[in-house]
Structure formats: C-alpha cells, structure tokens
Write a structure and sequence with these properties.
- It holds the Pfam family DUF247.
- InterPro entries: DUF247_pln (IPR004158).
- This protein has about 180 residues and is an all-alpha fold.
- The protein has helices at about 10-30, 55-60, 60-65, 90-105, 110-135, 140-150, 155-175.
- The protein is built from seven helices and no strands.
- Helix 4 crosses helix 5.
- The radius of gyration is 22 Å and the shape is extended.
Length: about 180
Amino acid sequence: MTTNNEPSSVESAIEILSRSVREKIKAIHQTNYSEDSSLSHPLSFPCIYNVSKELRKLNKRAYNPWVVSIGPIHNNNDDDKEEQHLKEMEHIKVAYTEELLCRIAGKSASPEVKGYWMDKALMECSAAMLHLAASAFNCYADNLKAIIEKKIPQHRLAEMLLIDGCFILELLYRPSLKNC
C-alpha cells in the first residue's frame, strides 16, 4: 500500500518507461551514423528504398500495391499494364481529399462560406506541401530519385503528396463517423 508521499507502482512504471525512452533519444544524438560524422540524425539519410529484383521475384504481389498506390513509386506508370488497375482509385483519393477539406470548412456553413474555407485550407495545405516536397523527395534512395525525377515534375510530386496525405487522413478518420 502506498502513502500520499510514495509514488504508486503505476507512477513508478511511467517514470521508468519515460526514463528509458529519454535515454534512447539521447543515444541517438550521441551516435555517429557515418564515418565522417556528416549525418547527425538517423532521419538525415534516405529511408525509402526499392525492393531488390531478387526479392521481388520471390513474391511480386507482396511488394506491389493491389488496390491503391501511395506516393510516386507506383504512380503514373502508363506503360506498365500490371499497374493500370491502380488508376481506378485516383478519383476516390481526390474525393476523400474533398471530404477532408469540407470537414475543415465546417458542415453547418453556407455553401459560399464553406467554399471560402475549403479554398483557404487547400491553399494553406498546398503551400505547406510545396515547402515539404523537397524534404519528402530527399527521403528516397538515389536510384529511386532518378526514376521519380524522370516521370514526375516537382509540382506534380507536391500535388500527389497532398492528395495522398489527405486521402490517408480521411481514410483513418472515417471509421469515427457515425453516418459513414
């Protein structure tokens, strides 16, 4: 039994857990991630890589999207007949984006007011995504960057990231809606 001056076992567990995570965060900042120490943080280097051809051959369906493509790797492949089915979801991603913007604008607003707030939200999201697109692009390994640069202009990459991001947010939000 604990007194008012003694921490409970739950409080002790919380303190132990937070101390452990804090130590791991400190360790990240103290670790050198390259021999020349040019990378000061684990997220400073590419974190999106292509699956090797050998691994992909083992089970192609395990590494290719079946229903929806998120991001630039499997997007815009007009010459790839096996990925044509992914284009069918593009209009749904745009519709989900509109639903998210509509929710931001508010359901009770008049159509004119709602349109204004949807446009304002879209402009703010667009500005943010244009700013973040270069950082997102730098998350890809160099061999993927070359592929992406060939097939997708930078403004299209920002548009894709905006629509894909809104789609994911709306997809995660929808289960909490009662009339969905």
